[in-house]
Structures are given as C-alpha cells and as structure tokens.
Amino acid sequence: MEKSSKFISLSGLSGIFAGAVALLSAGVLYLKKVNAVGSYKLSGFYIDRSTDASYLEFLFLLAVATLVLAIGGGLFLTWRKTRKSNQKLWNPLSRKLAVSLAIPLLVGGVFAIALVLNGMVRLVPATTLVFYGLALINTSQHTYRDVYSLGLCEVLLGLFALFVAGYSLLFWTIGFGVLHIVYGVSMYYKYDRKA
C-alpha cells in the first residue's frame, strides 16, 4: 500500500551527498572568513552586522552553487534509484512531493532575500533552516516518515539559531550538513540496502 500512496524512491545517498556539499560550502566560507580575519576561532562562523558587499556577493554565489550541487546530486541519485527499481522519477506522486516542497522553499527564499535587502543577513541562515524544515514537514505526507523527523529537527535548530543570530551560520552547517548526513545514512541502511 505504501508504494502506491507514497514516493519511496528517495535515496539515502542523496541526503549524504547534500550534507557533504553543505559541509564543503561551510568549510569554504569559513576559510574565506578566516583569511580575512586571520583567526581560526569560531569567529569564522560569525556573521557580522556590517558585512561588506564583496562578502555578500561571495555568500550569494556560494549559496547558489551549494543549492544547485545539492539538488542536482540528489536528483541524480534518486533518479538512479528509481531506474534500478524500474520506476519513473517524474510521476503523480513525485509531482505532489515537488509542489509540497517548493511552496515553503520559495516563500522562504523570498523572505531571505527581503532580510538581506533590509540588512539582516545574520538571520538568513536560521531562516533558511526554518523554512526548509517546514518544507520537509509539508513533504513528509508524500514520502517516508523519516522526512518529518528531519524537518522537525531543522525547524527547531533554525528557531534556536534565531536567538544567537551571529552564529547562525554554525547552526546552518549543523542543520544542512551534519543532520543531512545522519539522515542519509539512516535512510540508506533502512531502505536503500534492501532495494
């Protein structure tokens, strides 16, 4: 019954890949900040209130590259899993899943852009965690229940990060990096190895 009402072709490897991409991006950003500041303390993850334009441009380009790599890799790995099980990646269930995911993500993206334009860059990492988590919770009705748990963790982490906004990039790294890897490994051992 679950096969007919849920999209179960999500690959655990796609979660691991997305987490690795997030960790790599956070590492690049950390090293850029450390090279500018000259200190290997937690300050590499600190977002200053007076972030200059070149740093914002670099941050934007890195965010776009991270998003494209994570989504592209996730789609490829999920496509590969669907192909092995003789299913189609794009079907009525995956369309429902995509719409459920897209609405909160687009709203969150517009909200994040508004924060940047109003000089509140420090809140962007936490905000993206919250909206991404809400998107996962919304999507969980169309796929594995594990997605709900990941979404809830992302929301809670994002809400906490709002109260330590300067260090929200550190929490972004934990949420998009570490949590995705833990989720991906769990999904892989629960579902992918059996396929």
Overview features:
195 residues; single chain; 7 helices; mainly alpha; 0% strand
Give structural notes.
This protein is mostly helical and 195 residues long. It has 7 helices and no strands. Helix 4 runs antiparallel to helix 5, helix 5 runs parallel beside helix 7 and helix 6 packs antiparallel against helix 7. The protein is globular. It starts with a helix and ends with a helix.
Query: In this structure, how is the largest beta sheet organized?
Result: none
Compute the separation of the termini in Å. Answer: 17 Å
- Based on secondary structure, the structural category is mainly alpha
Mean pLDDT: 83
Strand content: under 5%
Rg, nearest Å: 17 Å
**Which shape, going by the Cα principal axes?**
globular
Order of helices and strands: HHHHHHH
**Helix share bin:** over 70%
* Unreliable stretches covering 5 or more consecutive residues: none
Number of strands: 0
Set out the fold topology.
Blueprint: H1 2-5, H2 12-37, H3 53-84, H4 92-117, H5 124-139, H6 146-162, H7 168-192
Helix pairs in contact: 2-3, 2-7, 4-5, 5-6, 5-7, 6-7
What's a quick, concise take on this entry?
By secondary structure, the chain is mostly helical. It has seven helices and no strands. Helices cover 75% and strands 0% of the residues.
